[in-house]
Fold this sequence. Notes:
Blueprint: E1 19-21, E2 24-28, H1 35-46, E3 54-58, H2 64-77, E4 81-87, H3 90-99, E5 104-108, E6 117-123, H4 132-143, E7 158-161, H5 167-174, H6 179-185, E8 188-192, H7 198-208, E9 212-216, H8 236-245, E10 249-253, E11 260-263, H9 273-284, E12 291-294, H10 300-307, E13 312-315, H11 319-329, E14 333-336, E15 340-342, H12 352-366, H13 370-375, E16 381-388, H14 393-400, E17 409-411, E18 416-420, E19 423-429, E20 435-442, H15 445-458
Parallel strand pairs: 3-4, 3-5, 4-7, 8-9, 8-10, 12-13, 12-14
Antiparallel strand pairs: 1-2, 2-6, 5-6, 10-11, 14-15, 16-20, 17-18, 18-19, 19-20
Amino acid sequence: MNWGNELFEGNEARMDDLKISISGIRGIVGKSLTVDRFLRWILAWENTLPDGPIILGRDARPHGGSLIALAQGLLAYRGRRVLLAGLVPTPTVGVLVRDQKAAGGVMLTASHNPLEWNALKLFNSDGLILTPKEFESLQPVFENPPEVDDYSFVPGGEPFTVDDSLRAHFDLALKQIDPGLIRSRGFRVAVDGCHSVGGIAVPAILREVGVEVIELDCTPDGDFSRGLEPIPENIQGLGKTVIENKADIGMAVDPDADRLALVSEKGEPIGEELTLVMAADAVLGAGGKGLVANLSSTLILDAVAEKHGSPIYRSKVGESHVVDLIHEKKASIGGEGNGGVILPAVQGGRDSITGALLVLQLLAREKKSVSEMVSCYPRSEMIKSKVPASNGLWESLQKKAGDWWPDAEVNRLDGLKWVWPDKWIHLRPSNTEPIIRILAEATDPEAANQLVEELKGRL
Length: 459
């Protein structure tokens, strides 16, 4: 079956709403993500795993509970011991896979996609999302999975609930920082939990290090009241909460709490790029070596690495590519400029819990406010835009666009990136949405905007 061209009868949704990528399998529930396909994908993946239990977790989307119940029953039917983690951040599933010596894990979340979407994020027996090689081997199966009837009943399956499912994650994260140092600052932090799992986890870990927490949208009911990406235009309410409560910092997450964005004590979003900058500053300043970021992450990271005498490495965009390079280079920290901090000592994946602790550790160590800390970094302006990925557009661009700026170095590791000494622009197809992303960075907003407008004009 060619799912990419299939039409749904009775609605306007096409199967191109379905996205099968290294970032997971995501689609609109009941349309591109049907119960039949959901079950077939689960079975196809489970069939590749070694013996052992499987961890199940989810974000707070209303359809998540029903889908997890389906997955639970199906995996028990296949003879698996199913460990139910409940409402937890995505990185917590990876931690639990290792902690419980599980064969793998499933996180049911569509991250920043709209409410009607959901997705399968799959973890291997190392507690990592599928590696590029694992995805490459599974992609043909995911695109044409066997029928449910092809799998037989296996006795012995049974579900169990994981007690205190956040504990193992918290304990690992707390070992990487100095709780006493953070406690000594008496921080007051406003947390925007996005009506999902971050509203449980982030306030809880902050209170363990003596932080006074002001909660905003921390009830995990899936009643999303803002745009789901923690980008500046979506977290203005958090800025107001910071000002009203005289908080030292605001912290916002996305629905599965793997990304973290920050608001200064002045109520101003500082941009999600600076989350990784500050976390890396904390780790490298404490003696860590090796920083990995993707091609679309800020040049400020190069300055932080240089300040601490650490190498920096760049990967393709995508969490699994960053994780692969972290392991290859044995780097102390890595991440993505979307607010995704990856500390391999805790979890090989984006992790807002660890990111929040590292940011507070840095502020406590440097005895600075958020605004003062930001002023220590080189000036930079990044612009993020996108265009619809119409049929054949990306293929055409790959052939024609490379010589658009002959004075720039062209990097084709992931899409097309034109690089100058003090600026760059990156054009690449999204792994999670039917769009082509445009990102540009320069030392001033006019130069960055000029690059984006020039590119759009060429498009």
